[in-house]
Amino acid sequence: MTNESFLYRIRAGLITMGSATKAELSQRLGISFPTISKFMAQMETDGEISYTGDDDSSGGRRAKRYAYDPEYMLGLAVFLEKDETSYSIFDCIGKIKEQGVKPSVIEHDADLLANLIESLIERYPRLRSIAIGVPGAVNNGKIIFIPPYQQFLDYDLKEEFESRFQIPVVVENDMNASVLGYASNFEMEGESLIYLYFGQNGPGSGIMINGDVVRGSTFFSGEISFVPQYDKQSFLQALRMEERNSRIQLTGEGQIDAVARLIATFAAILNPRAVIFCDDEVDEAILTKIAERSSTYIPQAHLPILTMSGWRQDYLTGLQQLALHAMISN
């Protein structure tokens, strides 16, 4: 096991447990006591952890207890939408230090985003990781599909920003981050879930199977606009979206049927526990109609639960998780 792996596990253990003795960490992590002691001595010297007191004695020497300093490293989550750029700065235990909304940068170029991040790093010099959410398909940090923002197509955002800022950068598809965040917010990390969002740039989905986000062999999974429906229509065309930049409203019977067919397709292929919709795009009446229509295509017993959630918060939570993982791995 590498030094980085030991550090990651010790950091994650302390953050999860709140505080621990060396013996507790050794037992929990399966790492030898001398190895734990060596790494924790350096972490204490660096100010990463602090001594919080001695445990009560059970007849022998009292064990020293340590806690991780949540302010030692900070993370940045930022996501790009057509009308705005939202960001969140948080500490190692997820406590939000600052949230804000800035004018959209995705209509322009990466320099505006870089300038925003640079200004935040200047105010928060302990920023140690960045997670960026984009409305497109991402292959290991490179944006490979992002209509209609062609200026970002084939742009390696991860490589460019890591080179510029010298800290880890994670770039993720918006819906992948959202389903990850939803699973965390509602303690469903091991479930199979689909997150649907119709958004400002056409529909997309995040797919989680048994707790793992599915990205696919070419990182194109979730691009449901292309799913064929009816005779010669894709899902996007079936929704009768006249302009790609206009927001979809699920008001017509044809749109309800298109979504119901998509739900039935997901149910037949992936059998998820739930499909999550953005709570500003549907209401209970619409979900009832979709569920009723879906049951005409597939037995009701196998249909997923249809529910709503706050997309923005799920999105930010997912990005925060990705940034936290990058932060404590570094």
Model description:
The protein contains 10 helices and 18 strands. It has helices at residues 3-17, 22-29, 33-46, 110-123, 157-165, 174-185, 235-238, 253-269, 284-294, 311-329; strands spanning 20-21, 49-54, 64-68, 74-80, 84-90, 96-103, 127-134, 137-139, 142-145, 155-156, 169-173, 193-197, 204-209, 212-213, 228-229, 233-234, 274-278, 305-309. The strands form 5 sheets. Strands 6-5-4-7-11 form a 5-stranded mixed sheet, with helices on both faces. A 5-stranded mixed sheet has the order 14-13-12-17-18, with helices on both faces. It has a 3-stranded antiparallel sheet with strand order 1-3-2. Strand 12 and strand 13 form a beta hairpin. Helix 2 packs across helix 3 and helix 8 crosses helix 9. The model is unreliable at 241-245 (pLDDT under 50).
List keywords for this structure.
five-stranded mixed beta sheet; 10 helices; single chain; 330 residues
Short description:
The protein has 330 residues and is an alpha+beta fold. Helices cover 37% and strands 25% of the residues. The model is unreliable at 241-245 (pLDDT under 50).
Strand tally is: 18
Overall body shape: globular
Q: Tell me the distance between the termini.
A: 15 Å
Give the topology string: H per helix, E per strand. Answer: HEHHEEEEEHEEEEHEHEEEEEHHEHEH
Approximately what portion of the residues adopt beta-strand conformation? 25-35%
**Helical percentage:** 25-40%
What do the pLDDT scores average to? 91
Largest sheet: 5 strands, mixed
Instruction: Count helical runs.
Output: 10
Label the structural class.
Answer: alpha+beta
Placed side by side, the strands forming the largest sheet appear as: 6-5-4-7-11
The unreliable regions are 241-245
The gyration radius over C-alpha positions equals 23 Å
